[in-house]
Amino acid sequence: MKLEPLISYILRIGVIVGITLAILGMLLLLVKGGSLGYTLDMLLDPYTFINTCTVNYSLVYRGLASFEGLSIILLGLIVMVATPILRIILGILIFALEKDRVYVAIATATLTLILLSIFLVSGIL
Fold this sequence. Notes:
This protein is mainly α. The protein has one domain. It has five helices and two strands; from the N terminus they run αββαααα. Strands 1-2 form a two-stranded antiparallel ribbon. It is elongated and about 55 Å long.
């Protein structure tokens, strides 16, 4: 089964959407002068304490509803990380359809390690 064109299309769309969201978020940051209670000076400072570990996820979700630039940038990052993960999931499906158990196991192990590192190590769960 030839799903490579579909995978290629999904990867392209994921990158385009992620970059578009990040650029839109940066433009909103510049127009509004800040986001989520942080000033633009705080966000642009190279020695700032603000990073993805210090931003509260519920604040980000609420920020999306009010069109906050920082929330939109973080959504773009999530899309950029989720795109290759989706590629691995599709790879598992392709290998399963081809009955290639070795590659199903390798791709499943890869997906498991990536998801564990994202959700457990980062403290999301």
